[in-house]
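Can you make up a polypeptide sequence alongside its tokenized fold?
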Amino acid sequence: MEAAFSDAYSRILKATGYAGQAELAQRIGVRQAAISDSRRRGEISPAILLALLEQFNLDPQWVRTGKGERHFTTSVDKVASLYGMKVYPHCLTDRREQ
């Protein structure tokens, strides 16, 4: 788990440009202990992921795994896939046009 945290933490520092734990905590508005606790648990806490999403638009999946796009983007297809659904193009038309 330490490797997973280390990799994610490295991605965070590179993406934000911050030098270390104290600066990161101060800038994203979490206690430095939250970062230390995440390191001890071996994973980035939800509070940190949310702060990074809100302030830097960093995709939580990318932060945790390094996979996908760095910045969070959403689309109807992406939201639907999160819920195991499929979007059909004919459902996306504006009903006012009919």
Observations:
- The mean pLDDT is 84.
- The helical segments are 2-16, 21-28, 32-41, 46-56, 60-65, 76-82.
- The chain has six helices and no strands.
